[in-house]
Design brief:
Blueprint (H helix, E strand, L loop, with lengths): L4 E2 L2 E2 H21 L2 H7 L4 H29 L3 H14 L9 H28 L6 H29 L5 H6 L1 H14 L21 H15 L5 H8 L8 H26 L1 H21 L3 H29 L5 H30 L3 H30 L1
Antiparallel strand pairs: 1-2
Helix pairs in contact: 1-6, 1-8, 3-5, 3-14, 4-5, 4-8, 5-14, 6-11, 6-13, 9-14, 9-15, 11-12, 11-13, 12-13, 12-15, 14-15
Protein backbone atom coordinates (compact mmCIF):
# COMPACT_ATOMS: atom_id res chain seq x y z
CA UNK A 1 0.00 0.00 0.00
CA UNK A 2 1.40 3.37 -0.96
CA UNK A 3 2.03 5.96 1.71
CA UNK A 4 -0.83 8.39 2.10
CA UNK A 5 1.51 11.28 2.88
CA UNK A 6 4.85 12.56 1.57
CA UNK A 7 6.89 14.83 3.85
CA UNK A 8 3.78 15.29 5.99
CA UNK A 9 1.53 16.35 3.10
CA UNK A 10 -1.20 14.37 1.37
CA UNK A 11 0.04 12.73 -1.84
CA UNK A 12 -2.24 14.87 -3.99
CA UNK A 13 -1.08 18.07 -2.31
CA UNK A 14 2.56 17.08 -2.76
CA UNK A 15 2.27 16.15 -6.43
CA UNK A 16 0.13 19.17 -7.28
CA UNK A 17 2.98 21.18 -5.76
CA UNK A 18 5.52 19.26 -7.85
CA UNK A 19 3.47 19.91 -10.99
CA UNK A 20 3.38 23.64 -10.20
CA UNK A 21 7.12 23.59 -9.56
CA UNK A 22 7.86 22.19 -13.01
CA UNK A 23 5.34 24.41 -14.78
CA UNK A 24 6.37 27.60 -13.02
CA UNK A 25 10.02 26.85 -13.77
CA UNK A 26 9.04 26.86 -17.43
CA UNK A 27 6.75 29.89 -17.30
CA UNK A 28 9.11 32.04 -15.24
CA UNK A 29 12.07 31.24 -17.50
CA UNK A 30 10.06 32.92 -20.23
CA UNK A 31 8.31 35.57 -18.14
CA UNK A 32 11.54 36.88 -16.58
CA UNK A 33 12.96 37.73 -20.02
CA UNK A 34 9.71 38.57 -21.83
CA UNK A 35 9.87 42.37 -21.18
CA UNK A 36 13.41 42.41 -22.58
CA UNK A 37 12.37 40.25 -25.54
CA UNK A 38 9.37 42.45 -26.30
CA UNK A 39 11.46 45.63 -26.12
CA UNK A 40 13.97 44.00 -28.51
CA UNK A 41 11.24 43.47 -31.14
CA UNK A 42 9.83 46.99 -30.86
CA UNK A 43 7.11 46.85 -28.17
CA UNK A 44 6.26 49.96 -26.13
CA UNK A 45 5.63 50.01 -22.35
CA UNK A 46 1.88 50.27 -22.99
CA UNK A 47 2.06 47.31 -25.39
CA UNK A 48 3.86 45.20 -22.79
CA UNK A 49 1.17 45.99 -20.21
CA UNK A 50 -1.68 45.37 -22.64
CA UNK A 51 -0.30 42.03 -23.82
CA UNK A 52 -0.26 40.78 -20.24
CA UNK A 53 -3.61 42.36 -19.39
CA UNK A 54 -5.47 41.06 -22.44
CA UNK A 55 -4.03 37.57 -22.08
CA UNK A 56 -4.94 37.31 -18.40
CA UNK A 57 -8.35 38.94 -18.63
CA UNK A 58 -9.81 37.23 -21.68
CA UNK A 59 -8.61 33.82 -20.53
CA UNK A 60 -9.82 34.42 -16.96
CA UNK A 61 -13.40 33.57 -17.93
CA UNK A 62 -12.25 29.97 -18.25
CA UNK A 63 -11.35 30.04 -14.55
CA UNK A 64 -14.95 30.58 -13.52
CA UNK A 65 -16.36 28.02 -15.97
CA UNK A 66 -13.76 25.34 -15.24
CA UNK A 67 -14.36 25.68 -11.51
CA UNK A 68 -18.13 25.44 -11.99
CA UNK A 69 -17.90 22.42 -14.29
CA UNK A 70 -15.43 20.61 -12.06
CA UNK A 71 -18.03 20.92 -9.28
CA UNK A 72 -20.75 19.84 -11.70
CA UNK A 73 -19.08 16.60 -12.82
CA UNK A 74 -17.24 15.94 -9.57
CA UNK A 75 -13.77 15.77 -11.18
CA UNK A 76 -10.69 18.00 -11.16
CA UNK A 77 -7.92 15.99 -12.84
CA UNK A 78 -9.12 16.24 -16.49
CA UNK A 79 -9.16 20.05 -16.28
CA UNK A 80 -5.62 20.01 -14.86
CA UNK A 81 -4.29 17.73 -17.62
CA UNK A 82 -5.80 19.92 -20.35
CA UNK A 83 -4.72 23.18 -18.70
CA UNK A 84 -1.11 22.21 -18.03
CA UNK A 85 -0.96 20.44 -21.40
CA UNK A 86 -1.81 23.67 -23.26
CA UNK A 87 1.06 25.45 -21.52
CA UNK A 88 3.48 22.69 -22.53
CA UNK A 89 2.34 22.87 -26.17
CA UNK A 90 2.55 26.67 -26.43
CA UNK A 91 5.97 27.13 -24.79
CA UNK A 92 8.26 26.11 -27.73
CA UNK A 93 6.27 28.27 -30.18
CA UNK A 94 7.90 31.45 -28.80
CA UNK A 95 10.92 30.48 -30.90
CA UNK A 96 9.02 31.59 -34.02
CA UNK A 97 7.91 35.00 -32.70
CA UNK A 98 8.96 38.07 -34.67
CA UNK A 99 6.22 40.60 -33.75
CA UNK A 100 4.67 41.70 -30.40
CA UNK A 101 1.19 40.67 -31.61
CA UNK A 102 2.43 37.10 -31.93
CA UNK A 103 3.42 37.15 -28.25
CA UNK A 104 -0.11 38.33 -27.48
CA UNK A 105 -1.65 35.30 -29.22
CA UNK A 106 0.70 32.85 -27.51
CA UNK A 107 0.23 34.45 -24.09
CA UNK A 108 -3.52 34.36 -24.65
CA UNK A 109 -3.57 30.62 -25.37
CA UNK A 110 -1.13 29.84 -22.56
CA UNK A 111 -3.35 31.76 -20.13
CA UNK A 112 -6.38 29.81 -21.37
CA UNK A 113 -4.50 26.76 -20.10
CA UNK A 114 -4.05 28.44 -16.75
CA UNK A 115 -7.71 29.43 -16.73
CA UNK A 116 -8.81 25.85 -17.29
CA UNK A 117 -6.56 24.34 -14.60
CA UNK A 118 -6.38 26.88 -11.77
CA UNK A 119 -9.75 26.61 -10.00
CA UNK A 120 -9.96 22.79 -10.24
CA UNK A 121 -6.37 22.59 -8.97
CA UNK A 122 -7.13 24.76 -5.93
CA UNK A 123 -10.32 22.79 -5.35
CA UNK A 124 -8.32 19.54 -5.42
CA UNK A 125 -5.84 20.91 -2.86
CA UNK A 126 -8.69 22.06 -0.63
CA UNK A 127 -10.53 18.72 -0.95
CA UNK A 128 -7.46 16.55 -0.37
CA UNK A 129 -6.71 17.61 3.20
CA UNK A 130 -8.25 18.52 6.51
CA UNK A 131 -10.17 21.79 6.83
CA UNK A 132 -7.91 23.15 9.58
CA UNK A 133 -4.80 22.70 7.40
CA UNK A 134 -5.88 24.84 4.44
CA UNK A 135 -3.29 27.52 5.14
CA UNK A 136 -0.49 24.98 5.52
CA UNK A 137 -1.43 23.16 2.30
CA UNK A 138 -1.79 26.30 0.22
CA UNK A 139 1.43 27.52 1.78
CA UNK A 140 3.19 24.38 0.58
CA UNK A 141 1.76 24.84 -2.91
CA UNK A 142 2.86 28.46 -2.92
CA UNK A 143 6.36 27.40 -1.84
CA UNK A 144 6.62 24.80 -4.61
CA UNK A 145 5.19 27.21 -7.18
CA UNK A 146 7.69 29.90 -6.21
CA UNK A 147 10.54 27.40 -6.08
CA UNK A 148 9.93 26.99 -9.79
CA UNK A 149 9.88 30.78 -10.00
CA UNK A 150 13.41 30.70 -8.54
CA UNK A 151 14.83 27.97 -10.75
CA UNK A 152 13.25 29.44 -13.90
CA UNK A 153 14.72 32.96 -13.70
CA UNK A 154 18.05 31.50 -12.50
CA UNK A 155 18.21 29.26 -15.58
CA UNK A 156 17.23 32.22 -17.78
CA UNK A 157 19.92 34.37 -16.15
CA UNK A 158 22.61 31.73 -16.82
CA UNK A 159 21.53 31.27 -20.44
CA UNK A 160 21.27 35.02 -21.06
CA UNK A 161 24.66 35.60 -19.43
CA UNK A 162 26.36 32.89 -21.51
CA UNK A 163 24.48 33.75 -24.72
CA UNK A 164 23.57 37.48 -24.61
CA UNK A 165 20.28 38.40 -26.34
CA UNK A 166 19.75 34.79 -27.46
CA UNK A 167 16.19 34.07 -26.34
CA UNK A 168 15.71 30.94 -28.50
CA UNK A 169 17.68 28.74 -26.08
CA UNK A 170 15.49 29.88 -23.19
CA UNK A 171 12.23 29.15 -25.03
CA UNK A 172 13.35 25.66 -26.08
CA UNK A 173 14.75 24.57 -22.72
CA UNK A 174 11.66 25.92 -20.93
CA UNK A 175 9.60 23.28 -22.76
CA UNK A 176 11.22 20.42 -20.80
CA UNK A 177 9.90 21.24 -17.29
CA UNK A 178 6.48 22.09 -18.77
CA UNK A 179 6.21 18.54 -20.13
CA UNK A 180 7.38 17.06 -16.81
CA UNK A 181 4.56 18.93 -15.07
CA UNK A 182 1.96 17.27 -17.29
CA UNK A 183 3.47 13.82 -16.66
CA UNK A 184 3.34 14.44 -12.91
CA UNK A 185 -0.43 14.96 -13.09
CA UNK A 186 -1.10 11.94 -15.28
CA UNK A 187 1.01 9.50 -13.27
CA UNK A 188 0.76 10.59 -9.64
CA UNK A 189 -2.38 12.66 -8.97
CA UNK A 190 -5.64 10.91 -8.05
CA UNK A 191 -9.13 12.39 -8.23
CA UNK A 192 -10.18 13.88 -4.87
CA UNK A 193 -13.88 14.50 -5.53
CA UNK A 194 -16.06 11.50 -4.77
CA UNK A 195 -19.40 12.80 -5.99
CA UNK A 196 -21.01 15.41 -8.21
CA UNK A 197 -22.29 18.62 -6.69
CA UNK A 198 -25.54 18.08 -4.79
CA UNK A 199 -27.14 20.95 -6.69
CA UNK A 200 -27.95 19.71 -10.19
CA UNK A 201 -29.78 22.89 -11.16
CA UNK A 202 -28.31 26.02 -12.64
CA UNK A 203 -25.90 27.83 -10.34
CA UNK A 204 -27.29 30.89 -8.52
CA UNK A 205 -25.21 33.66 -7.00
CA UNK A 206 -27.14 33.34 -3.72
CA UNK A 207 -25.59 29.91 -3.17
CA UNK A 208 -22.40 31.63 -2.05
CA UNK A 209 -22.40 33.75 1.14
CA UNK A 210 -22.47 37.56 1.04
CA UNK A 211 -19.11 37.90 2.74
CA UNK A 212 -17.58 35.97 -0.18
CA UNK A 213 -18.71 38.70 -2.59
CA UNK A 214 -17.58 41.45 -0.21
CA UNK A 215 -14.16 39.81 -0.18
CA UNK A 216 -14.15 39.60 -4.00
CA UNK A 217 -14.97 43.32 -4.16
CA UNK A 218 -11.91 44.04 -2.01
CA UNK A 219 -9.77 41.86 -4.27
CA UNK A 220 -11.08 43.79 -7.28
CA UNK A 221 -10.05 47.15 -5.76
CA UNK A 222 -6.60 45.88 -4.84
CA UNK A 223 -5.98 44.21 -8.20
CA UNK A 224 -6.95 47.39 -10.07
CA UNK A 225 -3.65 48.82 -8.84
CA UNK A 226 -1.74 45.56 -9.15
CA UNK A 227 -0.47 45.63 -12.74
CA UNK A 228 1.74 42.91 -14.19
CA UNK A 229 5.15 42.36 -12.62
CA UNK A 230 6.60 43.05 -16.09
CA UNK A 231 6.50 46.79 -15.31
CA UNK A 232 8.61 46.22 -12.18
CA UNK A 233 11.22 44.58 -14.41
CA UNK A 234 10.98 47.38 -16.99
CA UNK A 235 11.48 49.97 -14.24
CA UNK A 236 14.48 48.00 -12.97
CA UNK A 237 16.13 48.11 -16.41
CA UNK A 238 16.07 51.91 -16.19
CA UNK A 239 18.56 51.85 -13.31
CA UNK A 240 21.29 50.93 -15.82
CA UNK A 241 21.71 47.34 -14.61
CA UNK A 242 23.14 44.76 -17.03
CA UNK A 243 20.06 43.22 -18.68
CA UNK A 244 21.37 39.71 -18.09
CA UNK A 245 20.81 40.27 -14.36
CA UNK A 246 17.10 41.15 -14.68
CA UNK A 247 15.93 37.52 -14.28
CA UNK A 248 18.23 37.25 -11.23
CA UNK A 249 16.63 40.32 -9.64
CA UNK A 250 13.18 38.89 -10.30
CA UNK A 251 14.29 35.64 -8.68
CA UNK A 252 15.00 37.42 -5.39
CA UNK A 253 11.36 38.05 -4.58
CA UNK A 254 10.49 34.41 -5.32
CA UNK A 255 13.23 33.17 -2.98
CA UNK A 256 11.76 35.19 -0.12
CA UNK A 257 8.24 34.01 -0.92
CA UNK A 258 9.32 30.35 -0.93
CA UNK A 259 10.92 30.51 2.51
CA UNK A 260 7.94 32.31 4.05
CA UNK A 261 5.00 30.57 2.32
CA UNK A 262 4.63 27.50 4.57
CA UNK A 263 5.34 29.30 7.90
CA UNK A 264 2.86 32.04 7.00
CA UNK A 265 0.32 29.41 5.93
CA UNK A 266 0.63 27.78 9.36
CA UNK A 267 0.28 31.16 11.08
CA UNK A 268 -2.89 31.88 9.10
CA UNK A 269 -4.34 28.56 10.33
CA UNK A 270 -3.76 29.72 13.91
CA UNK A 271 -4.58 33.44 13.94
CA UNK A 272 -6.86 33.78 10.90
CA UNK A 273 -6.34 34.99 7.35
CA UNK A 274 -7.67 38.53 7.61
CA UNK A 275 -4.81 40.03 9.63
CA UNK A 276 -2.16 38.66 7.28
CA UNK A 277 -4.03 39.95 4.23
CA UNK A 278 -4.26 43.44 5.77
CA UNK A 279 -0.52 43.45 6.55
CA UNK A 280 0.22 42.20 3.02
CA UNK A 281 -1.86 44.92 1.35
CA UNK A 282 -0.21 47.59 3.49
CA UNK A 283 3.27 46.27 2.66
CA UNK A 284 2.40 46.29 -1.04
CA UNK A 285 1.35 49.95 -0.77
CA UNK A 286 4.73 50.81 0.78
CA UNK A 287 6.73 48.82 -1.80
CA UNK A 288 4.94 50.36 -4.79
CA UNK A 289 5.25 53.87 -3.37
CA UNK A 290 9.01 53.40 -3.00
CA UNK A 291 9.29 51.97 -6.54
CA UNK A 292 7.78 55.24 -7.68
CA UNK A 293 9.90 57.38 -5.39
CA UNK A 294 13.36 55.98 -6.18
CA UNK A 295 15.40 54.75 -9.16
CA UNK A 296 18.28 52.87 -7.53
CA UNK A 297 19.13 49.21 -8.07
CA UNK A 298 20.23 48.84 -4.43
CA UNK A 299 16.86 50.09 -3.20
CA UNK A 300 15.02 47.99 -5.78
CA UNK A 301 16.73 44.81 -4.55
CA UNK A 302 15.43 45.56 -1.05
CA UNK A 303 11.98 46.28 -2.46
CA UNK A 304 11.91 42.95 -4.32
CA UNK A 305 12.66 41.26 -0.98
CA UNK A 306 9.72 43.05 0.63
CA UNK A 307 7.61 42.22 -2.42
CA UNK A 308 8.31 38.56 -1.71
CA UNK A 309 7.06 39.02 1.86
CA UNK A 310 3.86 40.61 0.53
CA UNK A 311 3.36 37.72 -1.90
CA UNK A 312 3.71 35.09 0.82
CA UNK A 313 1.33 36.99 3.12
CA UNK A 314 -1.50 37.47 0.66
CA UNK A 315 -1.55 34.62 -1.89
CA UNK A 316 -1.64 31.84 0.67
CA UNK A 317 -4.04 33.62 3.02
CA UNK A 318 -6.50 34.62 0.28
CA UNK A 319 -6.86 31.07 -1.05
CA UNK A 320 -7.16 29.64 2.46
CA UNK A 321 -9.84 32.22 3.21
CA UNK A 322 -11.85 31.18 0.14
CA UNK A 323 -11.52 27.58 1.34
CA UNK A 324 -12.93 28.62 4.73
CA UNK A 325 -15.84 30.65 3.36
CA UNK A 326 -17.11 28.40 0.56
CA UNK A 327 -18.87 25.07 1.16
CA UNK A 328 -17.21 21.85 -0.05
CA UNK A 329 -19.53 21.25 -3.00
CA UNK A 330 -18.95 24.76 -4.39
CA UNK A 331 -15.20 25.12 -3.86
CA UNK A 332 -14.42 24.88 -7.58
CA UNK A 333 -16.99 27.57 -8.33
CA UNK A 334 -15.71 29.78 -5.52
CA UNK A 335 -12.08 29.50 -6.58
CA UNK A 336 -13.13 30.01 -10.19
CA UNK A 337 -14.89 33.30 -9.42
CA UNK A 338 -11.94 34.42 -7.30
CA UNK A 339 -9.42 33.77 -10.07
CA UNK A 340 -11.78 35.27 -12.66
CA UNK A 341 -11.92 38.54 -10.71
CA UNK A 342 -8.13 38.58 -10.52
CA UNK A 343 -7.78 37.95 -14.25
CA UNK A 344 -10.50 40.27 -15.51
CA UNK A 345 -9.28 43.16 -13.37
CA UNK A 346 -5.77 42.82 -14.74
CA UNK A 347 -6.82 44.23 -18.12
CA UNK A 348 -7.89 47.68 -16.84
CA UNK A 349 -5.06 47.55 -14.30
CA UNK A 350 -2.48 46.91 -17.02
CA UNK A 351 -4.01 49.51 -19.36
CA UNK A 352 -4.00 52.18 -16.64
CA UNK A 353 -0.43 51.34 -15.59
CA UNK A 354 0.88 51.26 -19.16
CA UNK A 355 -0.72 54.59 -20.08
CA UNK A 356 0.52 56.22 -16.89
CA UNK A 357 4.02 54.90 -17.62
CA UNK A 358 4.08 56.15 -21.23
CA UNK A 359 1.93 59.30 -20.99
CA UNK A 360 2.77 60.67 -17.52
CA UNK A 361 6.05 59.23 -16.21
CA UNK A 362 7.63 56.01 -14.94
CA UNK A 363 6.65 56.77 -11.34
CA UNK A 364 2.91 57.35 -11.84
CA UNK A 365 1.74 53.70 -12.15
CA UNK A 366 3.46 52.79 -8.90
CA UNK A 367 1.87 55.69 -6.99
CA UNK A 368 -1.51 54.61 -8.37
CA UNK A 369 -0.92 51.02 -7.28
CA UNK A 370 0.05 52.20 -3.82
CA UNK A 371 -3.15 54.25 -3.49
CA UNK A 372 -5.36 51.33 -4.53
CA UNK A 373 -3.62 49.01 -2.07
CA UNK A 374 -4.27 51.48 0.76
CA UNK A 375 -7.93 51.62 -0.25
CA UNK A 376 -8.13 47.81 -0.21
CA UNK A 377 -6.47 47.77 3.22
CA UNK A 378 -9.18 50.05 4.62
CA UNK A 379 -11.92 47.93 3.04
CA UNK A 380 -10.38 44.78 4.50
CA UNK A 381 -10.44 46.35 7.97
CA UNK A 382 -14.13 47.18 7.44
CA UNK A 383 -14.68 43.55 6.40
CA UNK A 384 -13.14 42.27 9.64
CA UNK A 385 -15.13 44.69 11.81
CA UNK A 386 -18.42 43.85 10.09
CA UNK A 387 -17.85 40.11 10.48
CA UNK A 388 -17.05 40.51 14.19
CA UNK A 389 -20.26 42.48 14.70
CA UNK A 390 -22.28 39.77 12.95
CA UNK A 391 -20.70 37.07 15.10
CA UNK A 392 -21.44 39.01 18.29
CA UNK A 393 -25.04 39.58 17.19
CA UNK A 394 -25.65 35.85 16.69
Amino acid sequence: MKKDTIFGFKRNVFFVGLTSFFTDTSIKMIYSVMPLFLLSIGASKTSISLIEGIAESTASLFKAFSGYWSDKIGRNKPFMIIGYGITALVTPLYVFVRLPVQVLFLRFFERIGKGIRTAPRDSLISSSAKHNEAGRNFGFHKAMDNSGAIVGPLAAFILLYLFPLNYTNIFLIATIPALLGVLSIIIFIKEAKSEKTSNNNRFHLKQLPRKFYFFLAIIFVFTLGNSADALLLVKTTETGINKAYIPFVYMIFNVVSVFLAIPIGKISDRIGRETLIIVGFLLYAIVYFLFGRFNSINIFVLLFILYGVYSALTDTSQKAMISDIVSKDLKGTGFGLYHAVLGITLLPASLIAGLLYDKVNSNAPFYFGSAMALTATILMIVFVISEKRKNHAV
